[in-house]
Amino acid sequence: MDFLKKNWMGMGFCLILAIIAYLLGKQFPIIGGPVFGILLGMIITLILKDKSKLEAGIKFTSKKILQYAVVLLGFGLNLNVILKTGAQSLPIIISTIATSLVLAFVLSKIMHIPGKISTLIGVGSSICGGSAIAATAPVIEADDEEVAQAISVIFFYNVLAALIFPHFGSLIGFSQTSGEAFGIFAGTAVNDTSSVTACAATWDNMWNLGSATLDKAVTVKLTRTLAIIPITLVLSVIQAKKAKKGNAEGSTFKFSKVFPFFILFFLAASVITTVATNLGVSSDIFDPIKELSKFFIIWAMVAIGLNTNIVKLVKTGGKPLLLGFCCWCGITAVSLLMQHVLGIW
């Protein structure tokens, strides 16, 4: 009862805005519900004069609902399918992830970009956009403005990729009779699931390939999503070392306080999906849970938007945008190079 009394107003307010953002995202999938959620939150917070009664619920939504979204995301992952199809694309995935993370780290030092923002952009660019940022933010204790900035950067290059890559693929000579090469390219070089889907579906429509490219791209993208697990675990160890070093001498430190236990639930959800489908259960049964995961991300993004100063975001957005561009170009180049090396393209 105390929980509801403290949080219901803020959570409910975010929920109403999330429903609006969700519906807008359905109408304009190239933008997507999470971006609409952040934008609505940032606009509304400029109008609201007093958020004191909403603050507790907004904080809970931006932190905990975000973690619940990641756990539910696990129900969309059949590990058998991913391992089977992902084996072909795994060297490309590892190479692109490594490229993005290294670029983000090096350039953040050169351009003097705060470490948390650069980490979120590097992880979001290399793994799976908003979902990766959602999983990483609690681990590195990023604040809402840092999350909003990273999401904004990822969104910008998502839209560019969805618009440019199908024509770019034609220009450089991807096969027009098979969706394999472009599907792998879209699955490894485009950040967020919505834009991967839009990009691959456009290629299918351009060359009358049915859903061949889309099926390939989505499976590769889901394989990338599994990288959330090792990345968040490594970041939690780094965060633990920082916290231990920052503690006063003689004070106790517990690794359990910084360990991202929600990632274990994410993995458990993936295992449940895999076992169930192996026993003959249709994967369609998990579709409502996957949709709920997407909605929870939108719900959390609204709360993050409500805690974000849009004026400050615009003023400080230049360097993160440049960092995102470098990561995007690096991933694109490495994806193409690895496909050429492996003889896929």
What does this protein look like?
There is one protein chain. With 345 residues, this protein is mainly alpha-helical. Helix content is 79%, strand content 0%. Helix 1 crosses helix 13 and helix 3 (55-73) packs across helix 6. The mean pLDDT is 87.
Our measurement of the CA-to-CA distance between the termini, rounded to an integer number of angstroms, reads 59 Å
**Beta-strand segment tally:** 0
Helix-strand pattern: HHHHHHHHHHHHHHH
Number of helices: 15
Helix content: over 70%
User: What overall geometry do the principal axes of the alpha carbons give?
Assistant: globular
Helix/strand/pairing category: mainly alpha
Low-pLDDT residue spans: none
- Let me know the largest β-sheet: none
| Strand residue percentage | under 5%
- The average pLDDT value, as a whole number, equals 87
CA radius of gyration: 20 Å
Quick overview:
With 345 residues, the protein is mainly alpha-helical. The chain has helices at residues 2-27, 33-47, 55-73, 79-111, 115-126, 130-140, 144-172, 180-189, 193-207, 212-225, 228-246, 261-278, 287-306, 310-315, 318-341. The protein has 15 helices and no strands.
